[in-house]
Design a protein that fits this description.
Number of helices: 6
CATH superfamily: 2-enoyl-CoA Hydratase, Chain A, domain 1
CATH class: Alpha Beta
Structural class: alpha/beta
Number of domains: 1
CATH topology: 2-enoyl-CoA Hydratase, Chain A, domain 1
Largest sheet: 5 strands, parallel
Order of helices and strands: HHEHEHEHEEH
Radius of gyration: 39 Å
CATH architecture: Alpha-Beta Complex
Number of strands: 5
Length: 237
């Protein structure tokens, strides 16, 4: 009996396990399909978001380039218009007054690295002043300033350009109209005018009146800090 039972168990062990019920197989297939569907949906969402970002970047890039060329053309158009008006007025002995605006920071007018050229910026103002200087029909300038100042070199270049405008024709007059602010380098530019008009609420002045710094002499003496200069020869500094 024991041998027969062992044979039956051995024989039963060689038999293949019964197939899974159809319901379980369908459930397994549904899980696989839902997994791949989720992956596909995620990829589609990521692709859609990426396309939107690329389109947005392209719009910003092309928009910036378009604004740059448009503003640059605007400055050129203004200078060209001044030159044309000067030629037309000279023939008829017409005297003109040119309005020029300086808004915002007075930057390095000779070497501006900005992508955008504002028609009311210091760079555009310098171009217009130079064109007006060469136009003999222009006898006056209305300079409207609304700026807190900027670089000393840029301010000095504009100041000298205004002086050159008057030097070309001593009878020319410059009237400066100050807006909300005309301080520091902007006030430096304004003093080149023959007349300065400020509003009661205009913030102006502030040229070299405040200088902040640290005096570390006592601290240096306390810790034994000294300045040593080394040269490679007696006549070299």
């Amino acid at each position: 009996m024991s041998d027969k039972s062992n044979n039956n168990i051995h024989a039963g062990g060689d038999e293949k396990p019964p197939a899974l019920p159809p319901v379980f197989q369908i459930a397994t297939q549904d899980k696989k399909r839902s997994f791949w569907s989720s992956c596909l949906n995620s990829c589609m969402v990521i692709s859609f978001v990426s396309m939107l970002l690329i389109i947005l970047i392209l719009i910003i890039t092309f928009g910036g380039c378009f604004a740059y060329f448009k503003s640059f053309q605007k400055v050129e158009a203004d200078t060209a218009t001044l030159a044309q008006l000067g030629k037309a007025a000279t023939s008829g002995n017409v005297k003109k007054v040119v309005p020029i605006n300086i808004n915002g920071i007075v930057d390095d007018t000779e070497n501006s690295s900005s992508w955008f050229i504002d028609e009311n910026s210091s760079q555009a103002a310098l171009n217009k002043i130079r064109v007006a200087t060469a136009d003999s029909s222009i006898k006056g300038m209305l300079l409207c300033i609304n700026s807190g100042g900027g670089g000393i070199t840029a301010s000095d270049i504009l100041w000298n350009s205004l002086k050159e405008f008057k030097k070309k024709d001593p009878k020319r007059k410059i009237v400066v109209m100050m807006g909300s602010t005309a301080a520091s380098g902007a006030y430096y530019i304004a003093v080149a005018g023959d007349y300065i008009i400020a509003n009661p609420t205009t913030i102006t002045g502030s040229i070299g009146v405040i200088l902040s710094g640290y005096n570390i002499k006592e601290l240096a003496q306390k810790v034994g800090l000294k300045i040593i200069t080394s040269t490679s020869g007696e006549n070299k500094a």
